[in-house]
Amino acid sequence: MKQKVTDGALLRLIRGRRSVRRFKSEPVPREAITRILEAGRRAPSGANRQPWRYIVIDDPAVKQAIRTECERIEARFHRHAPADLASWMKARGITPQKPFLEEAPYLIVIFYKMRELYAVPSIWVSIAFMLLQVEEEGLGTLTYTPTGARLNAILSVPAQFQLATILPIGTPADHQRQNRRALSETAFTNQFGRPFEEGSGP
Amino acid sequence: MKQKVTDGALLRLIRGRRSVRRFKSEPVPREAITRILEAGRRAPSGANRQPWRYIVIDDPAVKQAIRTECERIEARFHRHAPADLASWMKARGITPQKPFLEEAPYLIVIFYKMRELYAVPSIWVSIAFMLLQVEEEGLGTLTYTPTGARLNAILSVPAQFQLATILPIGTPADHQRQNRRALSETAFTNQFGRPFEEGSGP
Question: How many angstroms away from the CA of B46 is the closest CA of chain A?
Fold first, then answer.
């Protein structure tokens, strides 16, 4: 029998979260950035290697340099995007222009040490914790991953660190709601394809 | 000037979380599992592709089959582990035996569709949200990733889906505390190596 599931504070945070691509110019308290970093660095990681390095950008000249490099990469990416992705991006108004890289009061640029054990899973768990802390602060962000952008040079990052993503952080000026597949399409019991039954356990 | 950072509910949850490898036999409410799945499927994903599929295991025979396959892989892995990882595992009493795969009342086995855009980042963000929901439920888990284990056959999972991890879910019987590097070692401002300053913003 299906029972009503009561949300706690965390699920409300998760359900309320939206990706934000436009930001207001109002300032963000630096303490909020500290707490967002704290959420990230407290994440679990493979063999506790903590492969993450976070670079907080508040210097407009550095933001501009990052935006210029990212838009160079984006222009190339959009020219060669697979058809399904191109139409997905077009429907959402996603273009090679990335004004949020200058509009957001802060960028957190996240790198990881490539050779560490389970480095990619670990860095994304850390990023996920930060996404939720951004939401808890009443701020907005999205994960923006400009594959191939040469940010190591701009930020003096040693070559053994790889860019994972950029989180622009600010007060949301818009957001996009995304639908989710039903639980019954994604969760199964004991075998793939056998629907998960909510409610009382065995 | 350094200011005191006040934790909110999410940071308390993140700081309180520990990886759990031993579980009590007491039952877990199925509603808790539903909420954990809900936290996972509400995660953001690349181009909203939602590459995740969750298989909830409560059948002891299926758990046993999973454990047998994982321990087969583990025995091989431990024989060939790099020296630094081998000593890290030994110090923590991590052996090829994985009793938690049968002791935990539930396993959630998580697969992802390999060919989707940003599939690996997306699945780990989903897993991270689930880790926190497990904590919110007062339960324990860890991410257990038996690389190379042939679980698709045991669980009838189509070949285009790849195992990401197994989350054993139950009431903690022990946990391991891990230290974290200081914030000053992992967070910088505007350039790699320039320490992040907490406190009042510009």
Answer: 9
